[in-house]
Amino acid sequence: MNLKRGQEATVTNPFQPTGHKGGETGVVVATSTPVVGGTPVDLVQIQEDSTGGLSTVYAEEITRTRKD
Questions:
Q1: How far apart are CA 47 and CA 66, in angstroms?
Q2: Backbone angles phi, psi at 28, to 5 degrees
Q3: How far is residue 63's CA from residue 67's CA, in Å, rounded to a whole number?
Q4: Pair type for strands 43-48 and 25-32
Q5: What is the pTM (predicted TM-score) of this model?
Q6: Cα dist. 60→16, 44, 64, 68 in Å?
Q7: What does the alpha-carbon distance between residue 47 and residue 9 come to, in Å, rounded to a whole number?
Q8: Rounded CA separation 65/54 (Å)
Q9: CA dist., res. 2 & res. 63, Å (int)
Q10: In the Cβ-directed half-sphere of 6, how many Cα atoms lie within 13 Å?
């Protein structure tokens, strides 16, 4: 997982049933890798820009937003 706390991220590949549609943006507030059924799963918690709420997504669902 290459996302770190404080980085901006965008949901680009939403899995269902997470409820994301894609395009949601936010700031990474935490990352974790719990083991589920014997398999490690990379999770990222973001604070969404639009609502200020916290969402936990799979790392594969999001990409780092680059500021140019």
A1: 17
A2: -65, 125
A3: 13
A4: antiparallel
A5: 0.81
A6: 12, 9, 11, 23
A7: 10
A8: 17
A9: 9
A10: 0
Nearest-angstrom CA–CA distance, 24 and 15: 13
**Per the structure block, which two tokens stand in for 68?**
């140019």
- Eight-state DSSP code of residue 5: T
Tracing tokens 């049933």 back to the chain, one arrives at 17
pLDDT tens profile 13-52? 888 776 778 888 999 999 999 999 999 999 999 999 999 9
DSSP state, 2? -
Phi, psi of 50 (to 5 degrees): -70, -35
CA atoms of 63 and 13, how far apart (whole Å) = 9
